[in-house]
Amino acid sequence: MGLIAIDLDGTLINNQHEISAENINAIKQAQEHGHTVVIGTGRAYFDVQEILGKASLSLYTIGANGATAHSPSGTSILSVPMPSTKAKKIAMWLEKKDIYYEVFCENAIYVLKGARDILFQEVDSLRDKVSNEDFQFINMHLEKQLSQTGYVFVDSFQEIFDTKDKIYNILAYSFINEKRVTGINEFKEEKELTLVTSSPFNFELEHQEASKGNAIAYLAKVLNLDLNVSMAVGDSENDISMFKVVTDSFAMDNASDEVKGHAKHITSNNDENGVAKAIYQFIELNK
Ligand code: CA
User: What is the distance in A from the centroid of ligand 1 to the CA of 84?
Assistant: First the structure.
C-alpha cells in the first residue's frame, strides 16, 4: 500500500511539545489500512527516537532532512554524509561570522563549549527592540532549539572532525536577520550542498543529494511502496521536497504562504490535530 510522510516540529508535535492522542490514533488507523508511516524531519535520528518513544510509536524515520533513514527497529537504511573537508570549511566560516551552529552526526549533536552564549547575547540585544509578543516567540524558539537529545560539547571544531563520526547536517542558527541572510547567501549557490530552512531562525546544510523528498523516493523503492498512493504533511520550506514526490501534499495551517503554495491541500494547525485530519482525508481519498 501507500506511504505517509509526516514532519515533526510544527506538524505532528503540538505547541506543548507533545504528539496528541488524536494524532497517535490516526497514525495507527493509517497503519491498519496498510499504509507505511514515515517521519521526515530535520532532527537527528536519536532525538526523534526519544520523541516517538514518549508516544509509544515505532516508525520509519527520515532524519537530518533526508541524510539518514532508519527502520522502526533502528536499522540504518540510508546514509548520505557530507564530506568532512566541506563541513570543516562551513564550520570555520560560521565561526568567523559569529554564527551559532550545531553539527549533526551519526552519534551526537556537537556544539562548541560557550557557543550558546552567542544566542543568549542575540536575544538580550533584541529585548528592547521587538514587541513583547515577538520576544516571547523568540524565547519559545530558543528553548525548543536547546532542548534536543544528544548534545556533546567540544572545545574546538577540530575535535568534532577528529571523532570521525559521520557528519549529516550543519545547522546554523541566529535571531539576527542580517547574519542569517549573509549565511544563506554564502552557501545557497554551492552545488555540493543542499540548503534548507526548518524554522524562522535557521538554515541547514547537507550533502547535495540529501533531502526529505529524495529519502522518501528511496524508501518507497526499497520497501516496494506505491508512490501513487502517498501523502506528506509539513509546515516548513524543508518539507517542499516531500510535497513534490507524493500524490497528496498537505500544508499545515500554521505554514507560511510560500509553503502552502506548494501543497495540494491545507489542513488544520499543529495545535488542532492537523496531521490526524490530513490522514483521515487521505484514507478517504484512497478507499
Ligand atoms: Ca517543521
Answer: 27
Ligand 1 center–CA 6 separation, angstroms:
9
Q: Is 248 a catalytic residue?
A: no
Nearest 5°: CA angle at 271, between 268 and 276?
55
Measure 247 CA to ligand 1 centroid, in angstroms.
Answer: 20
| Exposed/middle/buried for residue 104 (C-beta within 10 Å: 0-12, 13-18, 19+) | buried
Buried b (16+ CB within 10 A) or exposed e, 160-174: bbebebbbbbbbbbb
Question: With contact defined as beta carbons under 8 Å apart, do 222 and 36 qualify?
Answer: no
Going by the DSSP 8-state scheme, the letter that residue 130 receives in this structure is S
Sheet with 265-266: strands ordered across: 76-79, 68-70, 60-63, 36-40, 3-6, 230-234, 248-251, 265-266
Q: What nine digits make up the cell of 122?
A: 542575540
Ligand 1 centre from 155 Cα, in Å? 30
DSSP state of 13: B
Kindly report, residue by residue over 258-267, the tens digit of the pLDDT. Answer: 999 999 999 9
pLDDT in tens, 146-164: 999 999 999 998 898 888 8
Under 8 Å between Cβ of 37 and 55: no
Rounded Cα–Cα distance for residues 212 and 197 (Å): 12
Q: Residue 172: enclosing H or E segment and its boundaries?
A: strand 167-173
Q: Provide the 3-class DSSP secondary structure of residue 218.
A: helix
Q: Which residue shows C-alpha cell 549533526?
A: 104
This model's pTM is above 0.90: yes
| Maximum C-alpha span of the chain | 56
